[in-house]
Amino acid sequence: MIFRPTPIAGAFVIAPERHSDLRGYFARTWCEQEFAAHGVRERVVQANVSHNLRRHTVRGMHLQVPPALEGKLVRCTSGAIYDVVVDLRPQSPTFLQSYGTELTPQNGEGLYVPPLCAHGFLTLADETDVSYLMTGAYDPACAVGFRWNDPAFAIRWPETQEVTIAGRDASYADFDAPAWSKRLADAYARSTAEQTGEPS
Description:
The protein is of the alpha+beta class and 200 residues long. The protein has one domain (43-196): Jelly Rolls, CATH 2.60.120. The protein has helices at 32-37, 167-170, 177-196, and strands at 2-5, 12-15, 19-21, 24-26, 46-52, 57-64, 72-78, 81-87, 98-103, 110-113, 117-123, 128-134, 143-145, 164-165.
């Protein structure tokens, strides 16, 4: 696998090293050792897929807070997407920065989204399928969302007018950095209390 760093700390575009012959090609899409060599030591615990009927469908921006942190490796297996990561780690040098890239079956690339970074995408074709390898299980109590077109993130989407989006994703309030930092601090405190058995 070929790891290409993005402007977001710890996020990578990952291209397959294709070994081709007259039958087609073979390529590795996940290797614990290779990911660990690039600082990603979480293990895959869940695999998900989304099917998107229409071009210009938006999903995101989603992540999970402690104690259910999750990283994800996202690939497009049919159609095409513009895939985006937003750094929401307050201590990160790239806090609030965003990065987007086009993923297709043809380029075979994936985007690795680190824990505490929000993820979302815009489909660029009808009948688009997206696969996710997750390093944490879904926990609705820890699931968090932010609006896809929040000006705080300055995401350069290819389309912003005629989109298909769930009501929940469209109605998130504007990002509030102090409120987000407090929510994270509270989540970490609860997580620590659960691990030690002490009240938070």
